[in-house]
Design goal:
Layout: H1 2-52, E1 56-61, E2 64-69, E3 72-79, E4 85-88, E5 92-94, E6 103-108, E7 114-119, E8 126-128
Antiparallel strand pairs: 1-2, 1-5, 2-3, 4-6, 6-7, 7-8
Length: about 130
């Protein structure tokens, strides 16, 4: 009888640890997806500026980012996962010739780690800085 109780207690402990691991894995996956979304938003801003021959701004505030075409909001605002943030010093502007104002966008994980994405002023390309 004691052995059965011990086996049940160990099984319960193992199930609890597995659930905790899955929760952290889901949170990490959501953050990685939002990091890719920020990079995608920067690429979309550059592509839109080139194709529409317009000035496009990437604006990041707290838990979301938005594109603006000629000063007007363009598309929908992207909201970051809970406890994650995205920020930039001012707007990053993309111009019709493919260049940009340049700058850095910081994507902050729920743990507080910062992932800088640098936008090159000459080419307008965005790259995650390791």
């Amino acid at each position: 009888m004691v052995e059965l109780l011990l086996v049940l207690a160990l099984a319960g402990l193992m199930m609890w640890a597995g659930v905790q691991g899955l929760a952290r894995l889901g949170e990490k996956t959501a953050f990685k997806n939002s990091l890719r979304a920020v990079q995608g938003g920067l690429r979309q801003a550059r592509t839109l500026a080139l194709s529409e021959r317009a000035r496009v701004a990437f604006e990041a505030r707290g838990g979301s980012f938005q594109l603006k075409k000629n000063g007007e909001p363009y598309g929908k605002s992207y909201k970051m996962p809970e406890r994650a943030a995205v920020k930039a010093e001012g707007e990053i502007l993309f111009y019709p010739k493919g260049d940009s104002s340049g700058g850095t966008v910081l994507v902050i994980s729920p743990e507080g780690k910062e992932y800088p994405i640098e936008v090159d002023g000459l080419t307008g390309f965005a790259k995650l800085k390791e």
